[in-house]
Design goal:
Helix content: 25-40%
Structural class: alpha/beta
Strand order of the largest sheet: 2-1-3-4-5
Number of helices: 6
Radius of gyration: 15 Å
Largest sheet: 5 strands, mixed
């Protein structure tokens, strides 16, 4: 399946983040045929708390620099964790048509917000969501992260408790 092909790349990105001591979120943006941008979570290693270094924002920044048109139809964003409101909004503005994610963010996921209640910049966008692709593999990355006592980022939060419960 096409979604699994690109999600495997996002998981590889997340593993690289985890190996670097970062929160294990990986992101891939694809045009349907090939990867056009990737990103990993940045700013959490060493227990720093940078909230703008999300993997999706990193990938969208690379997309900007790649020369791929924002208006290009068919861009799909793959992430190991459900995008937050910031990343969801940025993806819509960049013209992403579809978001595929592995593990739900029970604490800060933004993909279920009611777009009709948002200003026209967002409410006039059409975006589809596919949750739970390779969920088990993504969950395992978050469990590994939260089980490591050296990692303090998001420790003892609803997301950590949800992941550690194995749900």
């Amino acid at each position: 399946m096409q979604h699994e092909r690109f999600m495997k790349i996002a998981i590889t990105q997340a593993r690289q983040a985890l190996d670097a001591g970062e929160f294990p979120v990986g992101c891939v943006i694809a045009d349907g045929r090939k990867v056009v941008a990737t990103g990993t979570r940045q700013g959490t290693a060493g227990n720093r708390f940078n909230e703008t270094g999300h993997a999706e924002m990193v990938a969208l920044g690379k997309l900007d620099r790649s020369g791929v048109s924002d208006a290009q139809d068919g861009l799909v964003l793959y992430s190991t964790l459900e995008p937050c409101l910031m990343c969801f909004g940025a993806a819509m503005i960049h013209g992403v048509a579809h978001i595929v994610y592995g593990y739900e963010d029970v604490m800060g996921g933004g993909t279920s917000c009611d777009l009709s209640c948002l200003p026209p910049l967002y409410s006039n966008r059409r975006i589809s969501i596919t949750p739970g692709v390779m969920r088990k593999e993504c969950l395992e990355l978050f469990r590994r992260y939260f089980k490591n006592p050296a990692n303090r980022y998001l420790k003892d939060t609803l997301l950590a408790k949800h992941a550690l419960s194995g749900v």
